[in-house]
Specification:
The chain has 386 residues and is α+β, with helices and mostly antiparallel strands. The two termini are 30 Å apart. The chain is globular. The chain folds into 3 domains: 67 residues, Arc Repressor Mutant, subunit A; 130 residues, 2-Layer Sandwich (Nucleotidyltransferase, domain 5), CATH 3.30.420.40; 161 residues, ATPase, nucleotide binding domain (Nucleotidyltransferase, domain 5, 2-Layer Sandwich). Helices cover 38% and strands 24% of the residues. Strand 9 and strand 10 form a beta hairpin. The strands form 4 sheets. The chain has a 6-stranded mixed beta sheet, with helices on both faces. A 5-stranded mixed beta sheet has the order 15-14-13-16-17. Helix 1 packs across helix 3, helix 8 crosses helix 9 and helix 9 crosses helix 10.
Length: 386
Amino acid sequence: MTKKRSQHNPKHSNQQKIIRLLCQKKTINQVDIAEEIKASLPTVINNVNELVKNGILERGGVGDSRGGRKPVVVNLNKKYKFIIGIDFLVDTIKVVIFNLSMEPVALEEMKSSRFIDFDTVMDKLTNLIKDMLLENNITVSNLLGIGISIPGVINTETKSIEVAPNLHIADTHVKKYSKLMGVPVFFENEANAAAYAEWQTGAAQGARNVLYLSIMKGVGAGIIIGNKPYRGSRFKAGEVGHIIIKPGGRKCTCGEQGCLNEYISAESLIREYSNRAGKTVESLTEFMTLTENNEKKALEIWDEYVADFAFGIRTIISTLDPETIVIGGEIARYSNRLIPAVHEQMKNSKSNVIGNDHQILSSELMESASITGVALYLRNKFISKY
């Protein structure tokens, strides 16, 4: 009788650990690798030799001696593989080529509109990617994959974008794009992608339970529970922008009234000021400048915004109880003003359910969080299957 081969392969496991470590450290000597991954030095040397032979790692000379032979330094070969990240924004689509260290190699932006024909846009993006690869001497065979961030509900079972309201996309099947130019394509909701990036390499590193709040033209959230991304049974987890905080309140694009979306999005600040002050502001920056100049109406609207923001945070905390909350999107540029004010509001809560020990942090990756997240997912998938 033939014995079933165990799926656990110590060599592969050690090589995965070494690649992950080099993705973080960029360069490290073999002695330190052995200490970090808790393996013997001969085991590390054998695995490093194989990874160098396969082109993933490079030798980078020798390090300082600690008594005895100088340790061999190893680098990640940044040119071994590349990943393409695509971020659909409201008026622009951003395309970035990342190397294995998640460093941007090339960046291009393509003008878009809120009313797009998805197939036409994907054709244009394919041509743009081909041009970018050519300009940077990268072959398609060197691509790990293409990650696409979309501000909408992505159903990975039906392979469809169920709805992306800001882009006016609905019921769009993307299965035919699961292989573009022969490489795998990964679609993800923009807030989920940003949460993944902040959890892996940004503000929420080390946390097991994370809530990422994306405050842009709308409000969304990405959720990590027990060290795993949580998308919900119907892929709609994180649609916190449609929690009703004021029944009968402002009309939301979803058709309801009083949604959080209409009170704490970046657009809501601009709209409220323009409606109530009798003069128009064109951007969040312009509005925040008015508050810094102590303009009375702007300060009044900002105070209301902070109160609504704190109410929304308290509602989410009482449901999910995350240890870390990361504020991302446009409003993150003003976290130094927003976060202390929200903490102050939460301190005044009489509820013994809401504690004051939840970390509220600003995004470290800022506008690049979503595009980094989809690329990181593909890189980590490559490592886990190596």
